[in-house]
Design brief:
Strand content: 25-35%
Oligomer: single chain
CATH superfamily of the largest domain: MoaB/Mog-like domain
Bound molecules: adenosine monophosphate, magnesium ion
CATH topology of the largest domain: Molybdenum Cofactor Biosythetic Enzyme, Chain A
Amino acid sequence: MITVEEAFLAVEANVERLPDETIGLDKAVGRILASDVHSDVDSPPHNKSVMDGFAVRAADIAAGVTEFRVLETIIAGGLPTAKVTPGTTSRIMTGAPLPAGSDSVVMIEMSNLGYTDPTPEKVTLNVEGKFTAGKHQMARAGNFASEDLIFKAHHQIRPVDIGLLAEIGASTVTVVAQPTIAVLPTGDELVDCSQTPAASQIRNSNGPMLCAIANGWVPVVKDLGIGVDKRADLEAKVRSGLTHDMLILSGGVSAGTMDLVPEVLASQGVKTIFHKVKVKPGKPIFFGVADRDDGQRCYVFGLPGNPVSSLVGMHLFASTAVRKMTGVAPNAARPVRHGAILSAPHQTRGDRPTYWPGRRCDCSDPRLVEALRWNGSSDLLSLRDAEGLIYFPVSESPHEAGAEVEFLPF
Ligand code: AMP
Ligand code: MG
C-alpha cells in the first residue's frame, strides 16, 4: 500500500496536460494560460493628462507667468496640433495626449475658467503650491511598455485580470483545454435521490455530490446514472465513461464479493497505477489510465463508496489530476494547504493518516481550526459544517491544542 505522498507523485507523474485551445476573452475566466502573454501597446500610449486643465511648461509657472495665450483644446481621443511655447498653453481633458513642448498640467480649478466655459484666447493660471515638470501627467509607458511580459504561462485568469488583458489586445487567449468528466456511482443498494429507499436500499448521494464537485472544476460533466453490481452493466457504462477525459466511479473498489470495479476496468483496458492508499478515510482508492483510440487518454479514479471516502479521494487526487490536465504550474496541482493551529485536543486512531472534517473557529485567530464531530466515512452530516479537511498524521496520543496542522479548504 502506497503513502499519500506517493499517490500524489503517481498522479502528477502520469497525468498529462491537455492540448491548447484559443478562446474569446469573454470565456476566459477560470482558464489557465498556455503561454506567456505580452503587451502590444505602451500603457499609457502617450504622455497623458490625468486632469482637466491646461498643458503648460513648468518653467513658465516657476518663472511666475500667470497670463497664457490658449492655442487649442485637446480632448481624449484627439491629437494636439500645436506646440506649447513660453507663454502659451493648450486646454486639455483627462486622458488626452500632452502637446509637444508641455511637461505638466495645471488643474482647471486654478484657472479663471469653469468646466463649461468655451475655450477663450487667453487664460489666467494662478498656481498654488509646489509645481514641477510631470505634474498631473503620466509619462508614456509609465505602467508598462509594448512587448513587456504581462502574464506568465500557467496563470489562472481571474475576473480582475480581464481589464488588463483587454488593454493589451488579448481579445482571444490561448489556454489549456478542459477535460470532460464522467461520473459513475455503483452499487446494487443505490436508488435515485428522488425515490424513497426500500429496506436495504440507500439513496445515491455520491453521484450528485461528485457531479457537483466536478462541475465546479469543468463545464462538461456527464452523469452516467447508477451502475449495478453486474459485470455486463458495469462494462457498458465504463465503456461509455472512457470516451471522456476522466471517469470517476464510486463504490465497488474494495475486496467484497460484489466489488467488481477493478476487474471491469481491467477488462476495458484500464491500466492500474495504484490501488489502495494509506489514508483514512478512503483506503481502497483506485487510479488508472486508459489509452483511447483517438490518441488521448482517460484517467480513471475508483473512489470507495462511503461518501466521505469518495469526497476525500476527489478532493485530494481527482482534483490534482484535473489541475494537472488543465495546465496549472507543475508545483501547484495539489489541493491548497494552509498552516493552521488546532483549537482543542483531538484523538485519531489507526495506522493511517486521517483527513478529518474541520472548520475555522469563530474566533479572533484565523489560523485556529476545530475538528468537527464526525462518525466516520459514511457520516455526511459533519460536512454540512465543514470548511475543509484537517490532516492528522498517525499518532498514538491525542493531537494537542495548539499543535500545527495542515488545513485543506474545500
Ligand atoms: P463500497 O465501496 O461499494 O463497498 O461501498 C461502501 C459503502 O458506501 C456501503 O455502505 C455503500 O452502501 C455506500 N455507498 C456506496 N455507493 C454509495 C453512493 N453512491 N451513495 C451513498 N453511499 C454509497
Ligand atoms: Mg458496493
